[in-house]
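Worked problem 6 (solution included).
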Amino acid sequence: MADTSQSINQLKIDRSAPAPAQGLTWVYVVGGLIVVAAILWLLFGRGGGAVAVETDIARKPPSVAAANSVLDASGYVVARRQATVSSKVTGKVLEVFVEEGMSVEKDQIVARLDDTTQQAQLAVAVAQVESSRASLAEINARLRNAGKELDRVRDLAGRGLASQASLDAAESLHDELNARLATGRENVRVAESNVELARDSLNNMTIRAPFAGMVVTKNAQPGEMISPISAGGGFTRTGICTIIDNGSLEIEVDVNEAYIQRVKGKQRVSAVLDAYPDWRIPAEVIAIIPTADRQKATVRVRIGFLERDERILRDMGVKVSFLSADPQVPQTREVQGVMVAGAAIRSDGGGDFVWLVRDGVVERRSIELGGPRDRPQVLIQSGLVAGDVVVRNAEAPLTPGLAVEIN
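Solution. The predicted structure is:
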């Protein structure tokens, strides 16, 4: 029991011992809060007041054409001369001699139709000609005999040995045979015309290329029906194939009517096919179609290629740059300046400028334009270098030194 009492007494608090300093606890708490606040400010506080912006990067122009363009547009390669080859009559296809991509010459046979009926009609027409000619020969022989008979009757009548009635009958027969001879000759001409018609119908069963070119589509196969008009629903074809003249390939673009004054006849153009973005093709304006599209507010422009190449295909997408006709514009390979989005350029009383982004803040940078500013990409001759980041759009007004956040 004594040992137990001693152990319990050892558990008592010594009231005489000095109390610990209460202020140190509060120091630790306040210090911890300050550290947490500093960390939060470092992580989130600096960007809390930043303005969200969209940016663009200044780049070197890809070519002289891109830098000297006064207007950009897009369109398609079209064939000025093309034809869907069909027949003049309805018939069944027997043979097709062309395939897609094949080159054909003028009047080359591309297909044949079933000509059994036309062959029979030609044979009948030829037989009618022979019959008409035989009838004409018979009439001609009878006319010669009637002429001799008339001469004898006239001689007898002159000597009083033949009556006037016999003479009149001989003359009537001679005149009748003369008329029948004329009719027979016309019948021969009609029969010969029928032969020509039958031959023409037979020739129509052979379909030929109207001009030299390339086959781009093959529409019919042997055994199908073909007709020059749409008949029989989807079971009757209206063409054998489509042929285009590759020498007539050109570009058609629709230019906004607000900028059509920048386009002139014979103006030089740089064309880039969507399939070959690194290949710039020299071209020029052929014609400006003198009418506008009311719905789209555009004017169609025809552009001709100055260089021909087998890589240029019909219906290819193409982008064109209408080049400046200003003789002061340099036409060298090296272009001074950079290209930026036209939306990044701003102006005030101090001139043209852009907002340049550096280290998360913006600064005003004065620039000198090298071309029209109302284009998607504008040439900046001075004030920027390749790689500079400029503001294209901002959610709030910008001031020098303002922090920004790039979206």
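Discussion: The two ends are 81 Å apart (CA to CA).
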